[in-house]
Amino acid sequence: MQEDELENPVSDLELVERAKRRESAAAEELVRRYHEKAYAVAYRTCSGDVEEAKDFTQEAFLKAFRSLHQFKGQASFYTWLYRIVVNTCLDGVRRQKRRKGFFSSWRAEEAGKGIRDEIEQSPDLNIQSNPAATLNRKELRAQVQKALEGLSSSQRMIFELKIFDEMSISEISKAVNIAEGTVKSHLFRATRHIRKALSEWSEN
Fold first, then answer.
1. pLDDT for position 7
2. What is the pLDDT of residue 6?
3. Residues near 165 by Cβ (< 8 Å), separated by ≥ 6?
4. Spacing of C-alpha 192 from chain mean position
């Protein structure tokens, strides 16, 4: 297959079938379509660690293409990919925690660097050039991050899927493999927590 065969719109399912046949242009198109979303998920899951997010995103795509034969089309390709990205990140974070005792000073330095570089390197932040606006955005982002950290892992994951990735309740249910009623319950509790934590901003 020549790359120009992908110039016309091709569905994700067709691209997956072509990628299963080891057609490189199809695999590259899937990466092009979903790399930014996958990176954003990894970035949030890694709490803003840019380098970890990059590494885990690449690792997740490699895992996805190695197991592409398992994709049956029962959910969207992105929903299927999302689960791989999240699991890859969670596994990676757990590995990092196990090594934390050996690299504690190094990790502290990297964490500080991540905070300093966050404005320039985090995805889609759209920071304004006005210094006062930038300061307000930084303060709000810090409060949002703090509020998210106050959620359980399930509540945070579901809240981020709904708000940041704009997934439906049904899509979230398939992505995290829990009942839609449980998704709604987690989302309600998470939203209530976030609203309470950010109440002072809504009053300004």
1. 55
2. 53
3. 37, 40, 41, 82
4. 22
Distances (CA, A) of 172 to 7, 74, 120, 180: 31, 13, 30, 8
In the chain the domains, ranked by start, together with CATH numbers, are: 8-100 (1.10.1740.10), 128-204 (1.10.10.10)
**CA-to-CA distance for 33 and 112, rounded, in angstroms?**
32
The two structure tokens encoding residue 93: 């974070």
- Residue ranges, the chain, pLDDT below 50: 1-4, 99-131
Q: What is the pLDDT of residue 106?
A: 37
With the CA atoms of 174, 179, 185 and 191 taken in that order, what torsion angle do they form, in degrees rounded to the nearest 10? 0
d(CA 124, CA 122): 7
Q: Which of 200, 197, 109 is nearest to 146 (CA)?
A: 197
pTM: 0.57
Residue 30 tokens, joined: 């899937």
Q: Residue 195: which residues within 8 A CB-CB, separation 6 or more?
A: 202
Nearest to 48 by CA among 160, 129, 155, 154: 160
Q: What is the pLDDT of residues 40-75, one digit of tens each?
A: 888 888 777 788 889 999 999 999 999 999 898 878
